[in-house]
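Quick question: what would this complex look like in 3D?
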Amino acid sequence: MSDIPANGATASASAGPKIRMVDVHKSFGAKKVLDGVTLDVGAGESVVIIGGSGSGKSVTIKCVMGLLRPDKGSIEIDGQETTHLSGYERDELMRKFGMLFQGGALFDSLKVWENVAFGLIQGRNMARGPARERAMETLAQVGLGADVAGLWPAELSGGMQKRVALARAIAARPDIIFFDEPTTGLDPIMADIINELIVKIVKELGATAVSITHDMHSARKIGDRMAMIYGGKLIWVGRTADIDQSGNPYVEQFIHGSAVGPIKMEVRG
Amino acid sequence: MNFLAGVGRFFLAFLSHTGRLAIFTGVALSHCVRPPFFPRLILRQLIDIGYFSLPVVGLTAIFTGMVLALQSHTGFAGFSAQSAVARVVLLSMARELGPVLAGLMVAGRIGAAMAAEIGTMRVTEQVDALTTLSTNPFKYLIAPRMIAAVVALPCLVVVDDIIGVFGGFLVGVYNLSYNPAVYLHDTWDSLHTTDVVSGLVKAAVFGFVIALMGCYNGFNSKGGAQGVGRATTNAVVSASILILTLDYVITALFFSS
């Protein structure tokens, strides 16, 4: 069904892929969410997983991060099998990751700078002083001034919260960054600003990025490659430039946002 | 057959729920005794559970003490009422009503708040965010609350006992015209270590139960606002029932012989 083999090698993957998922399965009760997902993500590459609501996009990245444990299959990070890890080893692995959550997931009991510095202070035992400085630098990187640092998350607009959440995700300079619906709930202009920021920051950090979205505009902007998930499987994987010539009826329907076509929308999430 | 299937399903659900709770308790306890600890968070919880519960718990205690004095005075009319009243007020407060009423009030105040806060963090993915920032949610959210509740409740109950006895004293002296010096003397005479210690042990156990139920229900809540509401209700109801059940068990252990 796919034009390119789902686990096709990438240009930058000569030293082995950064993330390798092979035949990953995950069910919740009787509901099969992932039904054999196979995907390689090369170092420094930005891959966007697209698909409708309830198609298993979030579950895919939660499995890679270890927030969910797959029922079957293998997930390798830097060549290391990770599905069986727990405790200390899992904590060590988690240090490679940064994640931008869909709703921001900022801690509302902490000020903006404490949110950004959280991973440094709690996760890496950095002293509060240097951590605060690093938080300020990171806030500047996402275009926020020192005046925002002392505010509470609830005092910020949606777009500002997204920026702070982005700053928090990158404050510890992670190797791999996950973006969960980065533009959902933002106006088109703010969405574009966030897209540009993501592209800029991923480039600056030289990080590998895996994003999930159903916003095609955003997907085209931030992705080197795209993977379309449907029915728990990746039905098309290819370069962003090739998506308009996919020849795949599912992809065609999705990128044109048409109600008519082979895709049946999931009613239950 | 449908009836039997229903009973079976209920029983299986009960078992799996109990198992999950047992695992949760084990993991939470293991994080309570292993470093790193978060003194700042423990202190914040101590203030919240101990200090800010004082007005509610104090008010309950003073009126309970007052009503105890009034009722036992009626009951003991004709006997040597004065010394009996002092003794009944002290024993009831220290052994039973102090810890149980404080436990129930704190369950309503703190258990609900814990479930709502952690539940909201769960449904807004803040709990997942903690994990991605290399911070174990058990260590950061649950252990400080459990430690603080186990420490704070006995302290609250000491204050609670004193206020309750004072309430009885007020009614005794100003309403029933007892001699204040004799009332205090009778109270002092009836004071035994076991009574107070059993009350404090109860308080610590109730603190543990309140924090456990608040955290467990909050941590496992799902499905948005409704889920958080359900978690909060469950936290308060289950903590209250457990408090009353364990009160009987601990009383039996301390005083059965």
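Answer marked as accepted. Chain A touches chain B through 24 residues (CB under 8 Å).
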